[in-house]
From TrEMBL:
One Gene Ontology molecular-function label: GTP binding
Cell compartment(s), UniProt: Membrane
UniProt entry keywords in alphabetical sequence: Coiled coil, GTP-binding, Hydrolase, Membrane, Nucleotide-binding
Domain Dynamin-type G: 137-414
Classification via Pfam families: Dynamin_N
Name assigned to this protein: Dynamin-type G domain-containing protein
Residue runs in coiled coils: none
InterPro entries (UniProt xref): Dynamin_N, G_DYNAMIN_dom, Mitofusin_fam, P-loop_NTPase
GO cellular component terms listed in the entry, alphabetical order: mitochondrial outer membrane
GO BP annotations listed: mitochondrial fusion; mitochondrion localization
Length: 709
């Protein structure tokens, strides 16, 4: 090996700009006709394996360059996706709902649920990007061979590999996935790994598989203990003709179970092989495309998987033209892209073959071309398509969210502008309103106390007891009843003062509440004027027998004695004069009774006066008027203070709420502004990366024959 080839083999991939990438693809040289007389040393041998060796090296360099660029773009998109996932979860930043048909589309209308599902969808995209990175980095090519039950899939695999590897039988026998790879990946040992758990399989750890010899594979498949087998075999053909090993890549052939009516099983098998590069679908010419086959092909076509359709047992069909037309029409319905390339993608054969004809060589060549030489199409193109779709969806979502953040920013600023004047007015009115409430309360309390004091002092001077029983027989019960009536009259006056004070307090409370409503708007108020009645110790006056002495004043006693003496003289003279009693005594008795009634009335008046004076002295001693005036004023003060504190608390709460609301609006405006700037930058970066991804050429380079010297 020359030094130049050694350096070229061990050199790093080219990182030239994308616009220079096409310079790596030279124009194809014109093919020389076979009859041209050219020296043997420069003649192009069409059957020589070295014919496309120069093209292979050229394609390998182009593939490495494109792969290197695409891997860098995958990492960039992963960073963008992680950054987008982080920002859409930030508080205060609301993400628009993804549109239908997007990779990030979510169906729920609830904002919280949509955000959570979007986060899960972005997580799925990140996992798929990591899977794409692994797949693009992997140089192996995977080909899935599937089809209807008993369509000849295993026979096709054995024919392609020119070895009896997978057991075949007239009845369906393949009930598990069989991966067929070159034994060089197993240290050159030909054997079968029976895999119980494919997700944890590692050929370097014998605990993840059970090795058996190739000859025991049919028995292991019949036992049905394993659903996954990895078969390591040796292909003795040269690399340019082998379908397991190649100069450019290694190949893995996957023989899958046949499709059946169990759609769940079919979907699970296909979903587990989402990293395949091409699909070979085997159809029984007698059955044509079944319903399960159409479903599978439609899904594979939607996944943009390169499809090869092998129509087996075609030789058993009598009307081959009609059969071929029907099958092609069915293919056109389920996979239009495959139908357009039917010449290279659809093959009609009869398996098994003892000696493959030339048509089968064309099939083999086309499979090798797609699986090995067209890795740009089978490996890089799906990754590029996904990157383009994801970048487009994220850019569209970021654009919609950017418009939403602009709208939120404007709404927040407008709300701040509308709230500024009321907030400033409330701040300015706080102290004047509280001062006005204090003045109103003091004026009301002064009025209540003054009125209560005047009313109670007047009641002490001029009591109005409700009592009408005359003292005809006993002064002692009358004295107690009069005392009780007098104290009851004062109590009623106190209660009247309390009611009047409460009414005036209610009026002041209502005025304070109206003042609060004027500045704060309608709001519920606690009824502070309905407090429980304040209890007080009533006035008590104890009467003693000595209080009955001196109830008849001296002046009154003298007048009454003179009246009785005059009455006696008149009576004696009247008797002497008439000499008999008769009706004169009646007049005398009447006059005596009147005098007695007058005397008793004087006694009542004196008794009431003495009891009143005693009660008044007791009231003055206890400061009854001043005490109750201050007590009533104190009750009203508590009510007005509670109302004032309620108003002050409402004002303070309103100020705090408005300040908190303004702070939230400011934060919303700030977050929306930052989010708008972020999404603007995100859109620019996403579009830049999208342009770079689109610049990665996944077109297959034109074959350029090389002269062999």
């Amino acid at each position: 090996m020359s030094l130049r080839r050694l350096l070229r083999r061990h050199s790093a991939p080219s990182i030239e700009p994308f616009d220079r990438l096409h310079s790596l693809y030279p124009r194809p040289l014109p093919m020389l006709p076979p009859d041209v007389n050219t020296p043997p040393s420069v003649r192009i041998t069409q059957d020589s394996p070295l014919r496309y060796r120069g093209h292979d090296a050229h394609e390998q360099r182009a593939y490495r360059d494109c792969r290197q660029h695409l891997l860098g773009h995958i990492l960039s998109v992963m960073r963008l996706c992680e950054d987008f996932r982080h920002h859409h979860n930030l508080a205060g930043v609301q993400t628009a709902k993804p549109s239908s048909g997007s990779l990030l589309f979510t169906t729920p209308t609830d904002t919280t649920l949509t955000m959570r599902l979007l986060d899960e969808r972005l997580g799925q995209c990140l996992r798929h990007l990591d899977h794409l990175r692994t797949r693009v980095t992997d140089s192996a090519s995977k080909v899935l061979v599937t089809g209807d039950v008993n369509a000849g899939k295993s026979s096709l695999v054995n024919t392609l590999l020119q070895a009896d590897i997978v057991p075949t039988h007239e009845q369906p026998c393949t009930s598990a996935l069989c991966e067929i790879v070159d034994c060089m990946q197993n240290g050159g040992v030909e054997e079968v790994h029976c895999i119980p758990d494919p997700a944890h399989y590692d050929s370097h750890y014998s605990s993840t598989y059970h090795p058996i010899a190739l000859r025991h594979l049919p028995k292991a498949m019949e036992q049905g203990l394993y659903d996954h087998f990895r078969i390591y075999v040796r292909d003795h053909r040269p690399p340019e003709k082998s379908l397991l090993k190649h100069d450019l890549a290694t190949m893995t052939w996957i023989d899958s179970p046949g499709l059946d009516a169990d759609s769940n099983k079919t979907s699970a098998i296909y979903a587990g092989q989402d990293d395949i590069d091409a699909v070979v679908f085997v159809v029984n010419a007698q059955n044509q495309l079944t319903l399960s086959a159409k479903t599978f092909l439609q899904k594979a076509s939607m996944e943009k998987k390169p499809l090869f359709i092998i129509v087996n047992r075609f030789d058993t069909i009598k009307d081959k033209v009609n059969c071929k037309r029907k099958i092609l029409d069915q293919i056109h319905q389920v996979s239009p892209s495959t139908y357009e390339q039917a010449e290279d993608r659809v093959h009609f054969v009869d398996l098994p073959l003892d000696a493959p004809p030339a048509s089968f060589a064309t099939l083999e060549s086309n499979l090798r071309t797609f699986a090995v030489e067209h890795r740009m199409h089978t490996k890089l193109l799906p990754a590029k398509r996904y990157l383009v779709a994801l970048l487009t969806d994220m850019a569209d979502l970021a654009r919609s969210t950017h418009e939403l953040t602009i709208e939120h920013h404007q709404q927040a600023l407008q709300s701040l502008a509308r709230d500024t004047f009321p907030f400033m007015q409330l701040l300015k009115a706080r102290e004047p309103v509280l001062h006005q409430v204090e003045v109103m309360a003091e004026h009301t309390l002064e009025s209540i106390q003054t009125h209560a004091l005047n009313v109670l002092e007047q009641a002490l001077e001029n009591p109005r007891p409700r009592f009408s029983r005359p003292p005809l027989f006993s002064l002692w019960p009358y004295a107690h009843e009069y005392r009780d009536a007098l104290l009851q009259a004062w109590t009623e006056e106190i209660e009247d003062v309390e009611r009047e004070a409460m009414e005036e307090t209610k009026l002041c409370v209502q005025a304070i509440q109206r003042l609060g409503t004027e500045h704060l708007g309608p709001s519920p108020w606690q009824d502070k004027a309905n407090l429980k009645k304040s209890y007080y110790k009533p006035l008590t006056v104890t009467l003693e027998p000595v209080d009955l002495l001196g109830v008849w004043p001296p002046r009154k006693r003298t007048a009454w004695a003179i009246s009785l003496g005059l009455l006696a003289c008149l009576g004696v003279r009247w008797v002497d004069r008439s000499g008999k009693f008769g009706g004169g005594w009646v007049s005398i008795v009447s006059l005596a009774g009147s005098s007695l009634w007058l005397g008793l009335s004087e006694i009542r008046t004196g008794l009431e006066s003495k009891i009143f004076q005693k009660c008044k002295r007791a009231a003055i001693k206890t400061s009854l008027a001043d005490t109750h005036a201050r007590r009533v004023s104190r009750i009203s003060r508590k009510i007005l203070q509670a109302t004032g504190r309620d108003l002050e608390l409402k004002i303070q709460t309103a100020i705090e709420n408005k300040a908190r609301r303004r702070s939230e609006l400011e934060n919303q405006a700030h977050d929306a502004q930052n989010a708008g700037a972020y999404y603007t930058h995100f859109i620019e970066v996403a579009n830049l990366v999208l342009d770079q991804v689109n610049a990665v050429s996944t077109d297959i380079p034109t074959k350029a024959p090389t002269r062999v010297l």
